[in-house]
C-alpha cells in the first residue's frame, strides 16, 4: 500500500527542484544579459560619503561643469540633440550652476522594505533618500569631479567593444547635514552609432548600475516643436538596471525613467524633472525635482 506521507514528500521535493532549476535559469540569463554591457569596475566599502572619490584615489583634479560636456554625445536613433530645449541642454552641460530640490515618494507594497533600507543607506551615505512618510522638499548641493576609471568593457570582450567614456562623479549632498545623498559615476558609451548614459553607483562590495537610452520628449504650448528629454531603461539593447556583486554582474528585473522639461512659465532658467523606478513591473519610488539656474 502506497504511503501518503512519502508521496507528499516526493511532491514537495519535485516542486523545490523545479523552483531551483527556474532560479538557476533566471540567474544564468541575468548574468548573460549583463555580460555584453560595459559596467564600471569601481566598488565601495562600508562607507561611501561625499569624499568617496578622493578617498578612493580616483580624482584627476579636474572639475567639470556638468554631467556631460556636450549632449551631442547622446545622439542616436531616438534622440536628436539639436531639438532639445536650450535650457535643458544648458542644464546637462553646466549642471553645477543650477540649484536643485527634491522630494521622494515610496509606493506600496515597498514602503516597509524602504524604511528598513533607509537605516542602512543613511549610515553608508549612498542612495540616502528620505524614508517613507517624509515627502517634504529637500535641497541638494552638487559637485563634479573628473574620474580616472580603469577601462570598463564588457566582460570577456576585446578592446574594440564599447567602453565607458568621459567618466565623472556627481556628488549630491544635503546642505543642512553635509551628508552624501547620491554618489554616482556618470559616463557615456556608444554602440552601433547610438549614445547611452551609463551610471555607476558604488555600494559595499559592488555597484548598482544603470544604462539609459536618451529620447526626445515632445513639448507643447509655446514650446511646440521643441523637446525635453526622457532617459529610459526600456529595451532593446544595452539599457537596463544591473547589480554588480562579488559573484559577477546581473541584470535586474526592474528599470528607471527620467524626464526633464521646462517649467510652465517660460525662459526663466527653471526646469522640472521626475525619476521613476520599478521592480518586477511595480513602481516603488517616484522622485520629483525642481531645478533653477543659480
Report on the architecture of this protein.
The protein has 294 residues and is of the alpha+beta class. The chain has one domain (36-293). The protein has four helices and twelve strands. It has helices at residues 4-35, 52-55, 86-93, 111-124, and strands at 98-106, 138-146, 165-173, 180-191, 194-203, 206-218, 227-232, 240-245, 248-251, 254-262, 270-279, 282-293. The chain has a ten-stranded antiparallel beta barrel. A hairpin with a 2-residue loop joins strand 5 (194-203) and strand 6.
Order of helices and strands: HHHEHEEEEEEEEEEE
User: How far do the termini sit from each other?
Assistant: 83 Å
For the largest beta-sheet, the strand count, sense and barrel status come to:
10 strands, antiparallel, barrel
Q: For the residues shown, what is the average pLDDT?
A: 89
Low-confidence parts: 19-23, 153-158
Q: What gyration radius follows from the Cα positions, in whole Å?
A: 21 Å
Strand content: 35-45%
Outline the secondary-structure elements.
Layout: H1 4-35, H2 52-55, H3 86-93, E1 98-106, H4 111-124, E2 138-146, E3 165-173, E4 180-191, E5 194-203, E6 206-218, E7 227-232, E8 240-245, E9 248-251, E10 254-262, E11 270-279, E12 282-293
Antiparallel strand pairs: 1-2, 1-12, 2-3, 3-4, 4-5, 5-6, 6-7, 6-8, 7-10, 8-9, 10-11, 11-12
Observed structural traits:
single chain; 294 residues; alpha+beta; ten-stranded antiparallel beta barrel; 4 helices; 12 strands; globular
Amino acid at each position: 500500500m502506497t504511503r501518503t506521507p512519502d508521496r507528499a514528500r516526493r511532491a514537495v521535493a519535485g516542486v523545490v527542484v523545479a523552483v531551483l532549476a527556474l532560479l538557476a535559469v533566471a540567474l544564468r540569463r541575468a548574468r548573460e544579459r549583463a555580460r555584453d554591457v560595459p559596467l564600471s569596475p569601481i566598488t565601495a566599502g562600508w562607507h561611501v560619503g561625499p569624499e568617496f572619490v578622493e578617498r578612493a584615489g580616483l580624482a584627476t583634479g579636474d572639475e567639470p561643469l556638468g554631467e556631460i560636456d556636450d549632449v551631442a554625445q547622446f545622439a542616436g536613433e531616438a534622440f536628436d540633440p539639436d531639438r532639445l530645449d536650450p535650457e535643458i541642454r544648458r542644464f546637462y552641460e553646466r549642471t553645477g550652476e543650477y540649484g536643485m530640490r527634491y522630494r521622494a515618494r515610496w509606493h506600496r507594497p515597498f514602503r516597509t522594505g524602504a524604511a528598513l533600507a533607509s537605516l542602512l543607506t543613511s549610515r553608508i551615505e549612498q542612495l540616502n533618500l528620505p524614508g517613507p512618510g517624509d515627502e517634504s522638499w529637500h535641497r541638494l548641493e552638487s559637485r563634479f569631479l573628473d574620474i580616472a576609471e580603469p577601462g570598463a568593457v564588457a566582460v570577456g570582450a576585446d578592446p574594440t567593444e564599447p567602453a565607458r567614456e568621459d567618466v565623472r562623479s556627481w556628488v549630491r549632498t544635503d546642505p543642512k547635514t553635509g551628508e552624501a545623498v547620491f554618489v554616482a559615476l556618470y559616463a557615456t558609451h556608444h554602440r552601433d552609432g547610438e549614445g547611452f548614459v551609463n551610471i555607476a553607483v558604488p555600494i559595499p562590495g559592488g555597484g548598482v548600475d544603470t544604462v539609459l537610452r536618451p529620447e526626445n520628449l515632445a513639448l507643447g504650448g509655446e514650446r511646440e516643436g521643441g523637446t525635453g528629454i526622457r532617459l529610459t531603461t526600456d529595451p532593446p539593447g544595452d539599457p537596463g538596471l544591473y547589480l554588480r556583486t562579488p559573484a559577477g554582474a546581473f541584470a535586474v528585473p526592474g528599470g528607471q525613467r527620467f524626464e526633464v522639461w521646462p517649467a510652465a512659465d517660460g525662459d526663466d532658467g527653471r526646469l522640472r524633472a521626475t525619476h521613476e523606478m520599478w521592480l518586477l513591473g511595480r513602481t516603488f519610488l517616484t522622485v520629483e525635482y525642481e531645478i533653477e539656474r543659480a
